[in-house]
Amino acid sequence: MKTFHGRVIVPGSCEAEALVSHGGLNTLASFQKALQFGDEKATCGDQNNPDLYGREMAGKALCLPQTIGSTTGGMVLYCANAMKRGPACMLFSKPIDSLAAAGAILSDVWTESAMPAIDSLGDEFLEAVQTGDHIRVEANGTVTIL
Amino acid sequence: MATKMQLTPEQQSILNGEQGETMAKVLKTLVMYGEAFGAEKMVPVTSEKGHLVTSFDLKAMKAVYELMDQLIEAGAVSGQPFSVDPKPLDPQVPANFLERLVFKKFMYTQQENYDAQLKKLGLLSENAYTCACYLEEVGNTPEKGDILSWAESSAVVYANSVLGARCNRNSGIIELFGSIAGYVPCFGLLTDEGRKATWIVEVKTEKMPEAQVLGSAIGMKVLEEVPYIKGLDRWLGKELNKQNKAYLKDFGAATASNGAVGLYHVENLTPEAVEQGEKLIAPGAKTYVIDDAELERIKNGYPVVWKNPDARPRLCFVGCPHLTYDQLISWTEQVEAKLKENGRARVVIPTVFTAPPAVVEKFEKTPYAPRLKATGVILSYICPLMYMNNPIAAKKPVITNSNKLRTYTTARYYTDAEILDSITKGVQ
Lengths: 146, 428
Hints:
Helix content of chain A is 27%, strand content 26%. Chain A has helices spanning 27-36, 73-82, 98-110, 123-128, and strands at residues 2-5, 7-10, 14-20, 25-26, 61-64, 67-68, 89-92, 117-119, 134-137, 142-145.
């Protein structure tokens, strides 16, 4: 069991299975196909992301450095959450980027599906966590790999 | 809501709900967004006009349109007129039966309703659909020092770098909220400190670097940081003019899409670099040297994502970001000359040039318009990226001179010279 502490961007607690992206998450490329064509499990459609491509993202503890890509990114994340196809939480090793922050905050303020978001967990967090691990997130920013 | 940010009494009262629940939520979103980046206050948006990234009604984005309906219903509309990214559809652009079916039945099903929503929210005009909103024909050119609430990465990087305006790389919706509230959280590229360069890029090429490859190289190296570029004035000169501004438009779009650059300084050329010189460089800045070999290495490193890498191109896009009026004229002359050289009358690959609607209108009134038409090139206001963003178009072998289009779609990048050869000779 390993514990990390990050900064709370959107508070909340949850337990979920980890899904780890070592590269930046291209939000538009990852979610667009799933949102467009009725895939409730939100299978990642980004061919340039070998860690996530073809994996289901809905309900997972998404562990990543930052998000990248189009400035539609925040809206896409907001839509995924509004459609209940978003991740259970997003756990960033680096300080959050402006697009991911927008998506997480819009989901918190404008939907019933708030998604806890914690950033600055450190590179060692992404080195320690593996896809399939069980993760617990607490409202104070504590993240535990169970 | 208790905030760490210092709010004015007016902002605090909006947050407390005195202008209704919807406006309170708009402000709460901006406050949380600012606090995530350490903003201590809001600053007024001073530009006359805004710019939105969302120009399309995509079925997947239903929640966004529902949110916009909420805003309209509550009277929470933009306090400034805004331009918006290009339209996703143009009947002139080649598409087969299946593609048209996907566009109309599955993707952009409610485009007309969305256009009506944009009008209610504050759309500048029918002609305001372009990513290059800052071109004089479009009429959304901010002044130096203006604070903006824009999204669209290529427009933000141009406004910051070439015009000296101040804007963060906002997400869609956030930019609209700033235009509604009339202020934005002060952090990042809005501050003097955030505009300091943390990278020095030394351009040491023996020939004029291709804008889109140089931008790509710098974007991939510095990611979201600010580069101070030395040696480019050797090729672009020391005064901004139409030609080098068009170069910087294409260069900047590549830095913003291949990385996440929101601001660059070109020594002796861009406004802040001219004023402040090396004072803009932060202590401890890293250095990246770019020569011709480095640019070749970058270009050769682009993955080929076509199913058949040797497929014959079936479509060519030039104009992502949208072309300027002078670029359109230059491309027309170059295509004509190359066709003549190769003994052909019309392009051999269906080719689409894209430009802002206002630039298309201006161009259509000149003798160049029939000349371009005679070459077989189609002139459109479409967004090539939106056209390509579906599973069917993604399977089509498309070539482009846009590094942004290459990054977000399956389109393959070629230099301007290679594109000219391909469309006039049929050689890939």
